[in-house]
Amino acid sequence: MQTYFAIMRRGFVALLDFRGRAPRRHFWPFALTWVFVMIVSSQLLMRLLMSRGHFGVGASVRDVPLPPGSGGGSVEFDLPTAGDMARIMTGFFYGTVIAAAIFILLVAAITVRRLHDSGRTGAWALPPLVFLASGFAMMASFFTGGSPPMALFPLIFLNNLVYLLCLGYLIYLLCKPSDPDANRFGRPELADL
């Protein structure tokens, strides 16, 4: 556990350092911790937005006649309206954009250093960012009011598919072993070879 906290501390100290190398043993604990934090944060944000106290939406039971033979009584459901759901999803969308920006800021430098460690330039981290940003920009049109431009849906789908392919390839590159020798980005940390 002491090693984990040392890796996290080292990641924060070098948060803006894009030079040098970062071995796998430094990259993965730091990056996966932030992936976990972002997943939990998005779940908490959605729960907050869906809670009755925040937007006044949620199902509640009231008087609705029950079918004959069920013992009588009545039940009514107060379900969210389309406007309520649009408000919820808009809040979730913008919360997700902010969370993604924070995540990118937290892992950008260590991702570049990890790519350097296997002899690659940090530019390999850019393609997923381009498709992520364009996806967010296209999705924003769904939350600007009015009827959503459904003609954009196939383009958003294709953009997201290319984003996932780029992200998958970046993860593949991040999993590659360290360059055993010194490369143009510096010397390796011997414990990671």
UniProtKB/TrEMBL annotation:
An example Gene Ontology CC term for this record: plasma membrane
Keyword Zinc: no
InterPro entries assigned to the protein according to its UniProt record, in alphabetical order: DUF805
Coiled coil: none
Keyword Repeat belongs to the record: no
Transmembrane segments: 27-46, 92-112, 124-145, 151-175
Key words, A-Z: Membrane, Transmembrane, Transmembrane helix
Protein name: DUF805 domain-containing protein
Species of provenance: Sphingobium nicotianae
Lineage: Bacteria, Pseudomonadati, Pseudomonadota, Alphaproteobacteria, Sphingomonadales
